[in-house]
Amino acid sequence: MGIVISTFEWVPPFAQGNVKDMRPRWALAEAGLEYEVHPLKPGEADGADYRRWQPFGQVPAYRDDTVALFESGAILLHIAQLSDVLRPRDTQEAADVTSWVFSALSTVEPRVEGMILPKLFNAGEAWVAGWTSHAERLVELRLKSLSAHLEGRDWLAGRFSVADIVMVTVLRGLRNEPVLARYPVVAAYLQRGLARPGFEAAMAAQIETFAAHAPA
Amino acid sequence: MGIVISTFEWVPPFAQGNVKDMRPRWALAEAGLEYEVHPLKPGEADGADYRRWQPFGQVPAYRDDTVALFESGAILLHIAQLSDVLRPRDTQEAADVTSWVFSALSTVEPRVEGMILPKLFNAGEAWVAGWTSHAERLVELRLKSLSAHLEGRDWLAGRFSVADIVMVTVLRGLRNEPVLARYPVVAAYLQRGLARPGFEAAMAAQIETFAAHAPA
């Protein structure tokens, strides 16, 4: 069977390139590992079969010949162990990578999504402007801390790791937001990540899945 | 040196019992492992020394004789490995626990905190009511999925694990919210978690730290 990751069969253009199977696709590209996708048909994410694999109906979920997982952070820590390129070299490097994967998902991503999702999905509702202004101040606190850590570093945990894959995909949500430009060290880190061939390969692969299932 | 976790020296009463060093304290109590705390003095969380340990100035951070970590999810996965009680028994159980730890922190906690924190910290601002109503609908989607998974199960990944420690501390934020009562399977799971002696030990230990440093 080999490695299989779930994705949606198709999403609208504004979401293409942002769906979170970008993360395992990117890690697998860096690792040079082959994989297949399981594209979810409309409604399939809410069905009992898929919920046994991913209880919240989200993507990505992952399986290989030995194990099944869900949540992009868990999937990336697992993929790193399969790869001579991505596997941490010692106990402290593994601890740093794991800490930063959680940090990207638990400390940074909620602030970023909190700021940008209501502008996309709730445009015009009365509370959006007030909330967004508050949420941008919360994002800025994170960018300030992240900038201090990245000063003089190319990657979060020394050399490139799965933590950078998660953090770059999180920060990419801010690429058109003025708040990012106020933190040039973070903006340069984002550019460094997006310039990797592995990111480009993941993007091309995700778009290919959606193109194959585009509505007539 | 042994195990050391950081916490704040003191927080106001409404925050006591909710600070996130509750999670490693609980795990260490379940594991029967001794630890010391490093209580941060006012301002210390923003200092360069602490930022080298925890780049965002948050608590908890963790160190022992072999490794340093931050982010409660990373710390709990590490503690589980130190403990015959909490260590997963096979590869799939480890994958389930890791998936659920990420799920609690990345899929559930942002929705819960998004709903309850503005009511605490931004009371009276014009956007809070509209946002909170939206945020409660988002929480409800998660509770619905979680309820379906927990139906017929005592714990998220089969037997009790560090994933339950994280999820229970996340859901505890909803204990006085009407939305929780609409999901009795989840409410019963929360009560099951909070009834464990390990939770009570963690609570007593956290309160003891704050009491030792209470303002005159």
Automatic annotation (TrEMBL), chains A, B:
Residues 8-87 form the GST N-terminal domain. PROSITE patterns: GST_CTER (PS50405), GST_NTER (PS50404). Residues 90-211 form the GST C-terminal domain. InterPro entries: Glutathione-S-Trfase_C-like, Glutathione-S-Trfase_C_sf, Glutathione_S-Trfase, Glutathione_S-Trfase_N, GST_C, Thioredoxin-like_sf. Belongs to the GST superfamily. This is Glutathione S-transferase. It comes from Puniceibacterium antarcticum.
